[in-house]
Design a protein that fits this description.
Elements: E1 13-14, E2 24-25, E3 33-34, E4 37-38, H1 39-43, E5 45-48, H2 49-54, H3 76-94, E6 98-102, H4 103-106, H5 113-134, E7 137-142, H6 161-180, E8 185-189, E9 194-195, H7 203-223, E10 229-233, E11 242-243, H8 248-257, E12 264-269, H9 270-275, H10 280-289, E13 293-297, H11 316-328, E14 337-339, H12 351-377, H13 380-386, H14 394-400, H15 406-416, H16 426-435
Helix pairs in contact: 3-5, 5-6, 6-7, 10-11, 11-12
The chain binds D-xylulose and cobalt (II) ion.
């Protein structure tokens, strides 16, 4: 294994909660069996190429604060090759089974469609070699349809068909790359698919174009042998004022309306969920209830901010609630938990990238342990089920089956009189979660 870029860091190992070593896992013990799967199989961690290896943490007010030793060449393709070496060294040392990328993260845009395709193909064949020698796999690929100025009014929702065609060229190449690398999913995050102002926007036409574009992408992917899930990643705003894939509920409706429900699922991101005014668990549950929870972008928004901070997931409660939804739907595969997260701009040491992933992986591993314990050993599920017991038999069950009319409800109400008051016991539910945090 190359040790060129992180020479002072050894492969991170599980050492348990008694260790003093900050470069060790305290909870993530990949082969530990939890219920019917190992931790590795439950969590399916992936590293996000863009936050970890591309952006040196510049913000709108200043330059980057991280100094990436893989970005020292004058030629962008040479930088891309060094970046790939660094990325695979990192994946291996952090012991992540998967990674995710945008086309432009791994290979630079060229001066024409053909040159961009050639750049991507060249890096993809190198990535394939790295995957084969390390065993690291691709959780999902995607196309960046938001950074280039041509996409300022959107890609597949752009009023200009010429721009939409460029989006199509990029998605085609990104699907080719994903299939070549054995990617298990393919993601569409809306990027600039939304509007800056409604006054100049034909929203219906733009949404229909988005649907048409996604059906074309689906059909092309299936034609070249892509068997995985297509995933839409909801986000309510940023960079557009309004993003069309606002939240899980909006995306569920859109996928059904556009005839995409059989092939597409949802990639829920914590920070996007809270920007939509929900909790992480809410958007996960909404997607799961629709049979559409496909994957997760594991990160953490800041409740004091109205933008996408993409912190590493260190909130234990959030991870417990997330893992409870995931366990109850029988797992996240073929999706996974992708760390769409960046270290703070003030975390300027290269080692901070390791520390951030270690605490993110440990928080989810701990969340998994606690969530599993609650679901298996507490009366949480029974308590919840009992709130709905009146629908399990008798007239309640007839109502659920659709065999009562509104007049029946009237007669039942008149007959039974005022219902007994039943406490919702929210604090008791909260107490139960706390009691299982050991
Ligand atoms: C942007 C975001 C993206 C997607 C992939 O907020 O989350 O990085 O995950 O395009
Ligand atoms: Co994301």
């Amino acid at each position: 294994m190359s040790t060129t870029f992180f020479p002072n860091i050894n492969p991170i190992q599980y050492e348990g909660t008694d260790t003093d070593n900050i470069f060790a896992f305290r909870y993530y013990d990949e082969n530990r069996q939890i219920g019917d799967k190992t931790m590795k199989e439950h969590l399916r961690f992936a590293i996000a190429y863009w936050h970890s290896f591309c952006n040196e943490n510049a913000d709108p007010f200043g330059a980057g604060t991280r100094d990436f030793p893989w970005h020292k060449h004058s030629n962008p393709m040479d930088n891309a090759k060094s970046r790939l070496e660094a990325a695979f060294e990192f994946f291996t040392k952090i012991n992540a089974p998967y990674y995710c990328f945008h086309d432009r993260d791994i290979a630079p845009e060229g001066s024409s469609v053909s040159e961009s395709e050639k750049n991507l193909q060249e890096i993809v064949s190198l990535a394939k070699e790295h995957q084969q020698s390390t065993g690291v796999k691709l959780l999902w690929g995607t196309a960046n349809l938001f950074s280039h100025p041509r996409y300022m009014n959107g890609a597949s929702t752009n009023p200009d068909f010429a721009v939409l065609c460029h989006g199509g060229a990029q998605v085609k190449a990104a699907l080719d790359a994903t299939v070549e690398l054995g990617g298990e999913n393919y993601v569409f995050w809306g990027g600039r698919e939304g509007y800056a102002a409604l006054i100049n926007t034909n929203m219906k036409r733009e949404l229909d174009h988005l649907g048409q574009f996604l059906r074309m992408a689906r059909d092309y992917g299936r034609k070249i042998g892509f068997k995985g899930n297509y995933l839409i990643e909801p986000k309510p705003a940023e960079p557009s004022k309004h993003q069309y894939d606002f939240d899980s509920a909006t995306v569920v409706g859109f996928l059904h309306q556009q005839g995409l429900a059989d092939d597409f699922k949802i990639n829920v991101e914590q920070n996007h969920a809270i920007l939509a005014g929900h909790t992480f668990a809410h958007d996960l549950q909404t997607a799961s209830d629709a049979g559409m929870l496909g994957s997760v972008d594991a990160n953490l928004g800041d409740n004091q901010n109205g933008w996408d901070t993409d912190y590493f997931p260190t909130d234990l409660y959030d991870c417990i609630h997330a893992m409870m939804v995931i366990l109850q739907q029988g797992g996240i595969a073929p999706g996974g938990l992708n760390f769409d997260a960046k270290v703070r701009r003030t975390s300027s040491d290269l080692e901070d990238l390791f520390i951030a992933h270690i605490v993110g992986m440990d928080t989810f591993a701990r969340g998994l342990l606690i969530a599993h314990d609650i679901l298996e050993n507490s009366n949480f599920l029974t308590m919840k089920q009992e709130r709905y017991a009146s629908y399990d038999s008798g007239k309640g069950s007839e109502f659920e089956q659709g065999s009562l009319g509104l007049e029946d409800l009237r007669d039942l109400a008149a007959e039974a009189g005022e219902p007994q008051r039943r406490s919702g016991k929210i604090e008791l539910f909260e107490m139960l979660i706390n009691n299982y945090i050991k």
